[in-house]
Each structure stands twice: as structure tokens, then as C-alpha cells.
């Protein structure tokens, strides 16, 4: 999902002290959703993510918002998301059907466990009906029913 907000300010500028939270936040992108973009990629990205400023920002934001979602790079590629686990309730892994392997998923789960994080669950995206399944108002697969009856 893309919000097409095109803002120059973002999280990196807030954490670098070049912008404030209020300047960087895009309010009501859709009803009941505010957003802060990543901002320009700084040379010290991991340092900023693990900084006291990031902890303070998350603490302040938790006073204003019911839920805070942080979209990070894949767990298996960089440690950014793992660095934030101490400041969060847990991690929801987003995996793409047909691209994320079982080994990738296991490695991500192990990485979260190794740093004492809590895995909240897995969200499977890009799911397509399998060949051979009937495309009616509903179809049965195993003991579960999907769609309208």
C-alpha cells in the first residue's frame, strides 16, 4: 500500500534533530491514520534507530496514539527491526506468498527469539487462489470456509 505523501521531512530528520515530530507527521493520511515517512537515508541509520531520541519518540508517540506500527527492512537483511524490539510489544512478520521461504521464516523467528523479542504473528500477503479451486462466492479448503455464503 502506498500513501503518496511525498514529504521531505521524516523519521531520519526528526532523529537527527533537523525536524520536529509535528513537522514530520502527516496527519489523517486516511481517517484515523497519521504517518511519518522514513525521510532521507542518513549515513548513520542504525545509530539513529538505536538512539535515545528514537526511544523518546516512541515513548512520546505512545502517549498520543493507540497503536504504533513501524515498517522496517526485512529481519534477515538488517538489524534495524531487532533493535526496536525492546521498545515494542512485539513483531508482526509480513511474508509474501511464493517469495518468502520456510527457511527465511524460521531464520527470522530465531533472530527475534535470540534478542528476547516477542513474535506476535505472521501476516501472509499476495495470496492468490490456487489453480483448480472453484471461483464462486465461497470455496472450501480443508475444514475452513472463505468468503461469503
Describe the structure.
The chain is of the alpha+beta class and 149 residues long. It is 30% helix and 19% strand. The longest helix has 13 residues, at 52-64. It is globular, with a radius of gyration of 19 Å. The two termini are 28 Å apart. Residues 135-149 have low confidence and may be disordered.
Level of helix content? 25-40%
What is the approximate shape? Answer: globular
Task: Compute the number of strand runs.
Answer: 6
Please give the radius of gyration in angstroms: 19 Å
Binned strand content = 15-25%
The biggest sheet, with number of strands, parallel, antiparallel or mixed sense and barrel status, is: 2 strands, antiparallel
Quick structural overview:
This protein is α+β, with helices and mostly antiparallel strands.
Helices and strands in order, then pairings?
Elements: H1 11-15, H2 21-24, E1 26-30, E2 33-35, H3 45-49, H4 52-64, H5 80-83, E3 91-96, H6 102-114, E4 119-125, E5 138-141, E6 144-147
Parallel strand pairs: 3-4
Antiparallel strand pairs: 1-2, 5-6
Sum up the structure in keywords.
149 residues, alpha+beta, two-stranded antiparallel sheet, two-stranded parallel ribbon, 6 helices, 19% strand, globular, disordered C terminus
Amino acid at each position: 500500500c502506498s500513501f503518496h505523501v511525498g514529504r521531505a521531512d521524516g523519521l531520519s530528520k526528526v532523529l537527527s534533530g533537523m525536524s520536529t515530530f509535528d513537522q514530520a507527521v502527516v496527519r489523517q493520511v486516511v481517517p484515523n491514520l497519521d504517518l511519518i515517512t522514513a525521510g532521507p537515508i542518513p549515513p548513520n541509520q542504525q545509530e539513529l534507530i538505536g538512539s535515545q531520541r528514537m526511544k523518546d519518540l516512541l515513548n512520546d508517540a505512545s502517549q498520543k496514539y493507540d497503536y504504533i506500527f513501524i515498517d522496517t527492512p526485512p529481519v534477515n537483511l538488517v538489524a534495524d527491526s531487532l533493535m526496536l524490539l525492546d521498545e515494542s510489544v512485539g513483531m508482526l512478520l509480513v511474508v509474501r506468498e511464493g517469495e518468502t521461504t520456510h527457511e527465511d521464516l524460521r531464520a527470522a523467528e530465531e533472530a527475534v527469539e535470540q534478542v528476547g523479542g516477542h513474535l506476535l504473528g505472521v501476516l501472509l500477503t499476495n495470496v492468490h487462489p490456487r489453480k483448480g479451486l472453484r471461483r464462486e462466492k465461497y470455496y472450501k479448503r480443508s475444514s475452513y470456509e472463505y468468503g461469503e455464503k
